[in-house]
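Tokens as discussed.
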């Protein structure tokens, strides 16, 4: 982050809140020299990959359950298609908006933490330099070496903020997450997952469409579960089976509930 960006972060604080924080930093509470472990230490994440994974999973499971539940009630295929499309659109927009708001708030929290840290470095440079030296000592560096490293890193305020952000807050100032990226990823992947069990009803009808929805949903559940397990370094087969069992169980419950209504089709 440039000096201009840091100034923008400080200006983003409410004027009264900025005055309170500066006063607290100077007085030593709760951000000052006596509080070496800030209570808002956070870990930065972009959120896009997480949004994509949950979007695909949610879209597949929720729309498969919705379609089979409606199909279980015995309504006409056109009604199932309308329900499936409505579920796809409602879910995709809901996921997109939810991810955007979630990431927006998270990013603002991170930016607030960085703004406070920048103010600490500006107002209490020596204390922040000592804090950095202690961090490196705890990591095994001799005191003299830790002091040299802290001195060098603290020469430039921009570099000092990057170091403090990583070492204290667990944040990368350049990777605070993208609300729009998470929203679009969640929206798109939910729609992809939700359309899979819907396709058979778009190209067929009756028992063939129902069987196709079940087969397509089950196959997709296994693939998504295996992919999620692969990304997390877990057993692919176990992850696929777990996702398949949970997803089909959910869809089975909604199908049974839907069948209780037993809507007659003229």
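Sequence:
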């Amino acid at each position: 982050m440039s000096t201009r960006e840091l100034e923008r972060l400080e200006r983003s604080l409410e004027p009264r809140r900025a005055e309170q924080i500066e006063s607290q930093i100077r007085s030593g509470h709760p951000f000052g020299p006596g509080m070496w472990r800030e209570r808002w230490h956070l870990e930065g994440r972009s959120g896009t990959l997480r949004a994509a994974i949950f979007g695909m999973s949610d879209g597949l499971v929720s729309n498969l359950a919705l379609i089979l539940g409606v199909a279980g009630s015995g309504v006409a295929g056109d009604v199932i298609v309308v329900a499936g499309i409505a579920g796809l659109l409602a879910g995709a927009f809901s996921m997109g908006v939810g991810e955007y708001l979630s990431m927006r708030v998270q990013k603002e929290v991170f930016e607030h933490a960085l703004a406070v840290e920048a103010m600490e470095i500006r107002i209490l440079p020596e204390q922040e330099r000592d804090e950095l030296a202690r961090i490196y000592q705890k990591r095994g560096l001799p005191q003299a070496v830790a002091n040299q490293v802290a001195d060098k890193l603290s020469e430039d305020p921009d570099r000092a903020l990057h170091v403090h952000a990583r070492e204290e807050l667990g944040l990368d100032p350049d990777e605070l997450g993208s609300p729009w990226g998470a929203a679009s990823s969640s929206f798109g992947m939910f729609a992809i997952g939700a359309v899979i069990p819907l396709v058979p009803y778009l190209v067929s009808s009756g028992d063939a469409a129902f069987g196709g929805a079940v087969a397509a949903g089950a196959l997709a559940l296994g693939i998504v579960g295996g992919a999620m397990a692969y990304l997390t370094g877990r057993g692919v087969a176990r992850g696929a089976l777990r996702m398949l069992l949970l997803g089909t169980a959910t869809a089975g419950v909604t199908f049974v509930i839907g069948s209780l209504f037993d809507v007659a089709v003229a």
